Amino acid sequence: MGSSKAGGGLMPGKNSAALGKEPIGKLLIRQAAPASVGILVMSLNILIDTIFVGNWIGSTAIAAINVVLPIAFFVAAVGMAIGVGGSSIISRALGSSNRQKALKAFGNQISLTLCLTLGMAVLGLLYTNELIPAFGGKGNIFDPARVYYRIVLCGVPFLALCMMGNSVIRAEGKPRFAMFAMIIPSVGNLILDYVLINRLDLGMMGAAWATTASYICCFFYILWFFLSRNSELKISFADFGFDMPVLKEISSLGFVTLARQALVSITYLLMNNILFELGGENSVTVYAIVGRMLMFALFPVLGITQGFLPIAGFNYGARKYMRVRKSINTAILYSVILAIFVFSGIMFFAEEIVYIFTDNKTIIAETPNAMRIVFAATPIVALQLIGAAYFQAAGKAIPAFLLTLTRQGFFFIPLVFILPQIYGETGVWLSFPVADLLSTIVTGYFLNREIRRNLRPS
Question: Which string of b and e fits 160-199 if b means at least 16 CB within 10 Å?
Fold first, then answer.
């Protein structure tokens, strides 16, 4: 995005250098606050979008969107994975003053994202009628899900490029621009929701076009950023050519993020099908509401994690291991404090939250208890998130991958098969906090061992 100047490549940037100099607490707040705001706005967008759909179209439409999202987000997550994997390279390259590697990584990120997501979107459209029922789009859910799916999938490659670009913007140490990149599609989606659903009465088609148009708006903002003077990364056409060592490193690190999203998609598939069998369409809708709250309520913790990544990556690349240790401790402390506030809010206001989404009495009766159980282990999830993020930031793909798998793959998926056999639908909800607890214990062990062995004063 943009051609290289004669002196080529990376313009000197105060923002990236500050990652290795400023006090960790101040730096983390500066990095995390815009990320948190961006995630908050994006989460509010998903939340309010669900409220609009539930009130203006109906509760079945909430379930329909819940069926489509894991399929669409998996394709988009390819861009996120490439973004996170490449940005880890960029952060460490900036920290070690390896300009050419940072540029080559960025160019390869763009090429790889385009090739993979366009191909996946085409395949997804060809197998529409097979994928939607597989993810729980059965009965009355199928038709609205199909309408939403076909339109949204066309915009998913744009979303993938946005997610990739957003990670790179953070790697440059420019979190405010990354925040705006998240705010623009969120605000745009809500405005278009109102116009297309409420005013023009386009139903599911309106909801889908609002989402797709918002992705495209975000893409053009990120394109502008990299073409402007705001970006340090000025790549040439040669940087778009695939470089196997760089691709291998992007893939190994990005696979962690992709595996996480793949497990999220598999979780949705299992949950929608298991809950449909246990309680029909209403149970799928309960999960949709709980899932939206999981996306929304944890925004400050996810913001800290996003802010932590470039700080840890830059300082690890610069061999400033005591700063890395301090960034881990500070990020965990801040995240735990924020998670306790989230936990308290859910425990006290679960009923009031559900009333916002629907007036369906069955769903209102069932959702608060499910929500409280799902959020029961929230205060400890920070350790698991920061621990897995550290290994990714440090370029340690295998431990990052394994720790990412612990919650969803090693614990949650087996539990969601076992516990419902004993406790029925309640067992589905219990799988969440039990998986959180077990994965946090495992992550804490490996993170502590890593700190003692490899993050000593240089």
Answer: bbbbbbbbbbbbbbbbbbbbbbbbbbbebbbebbbebbee
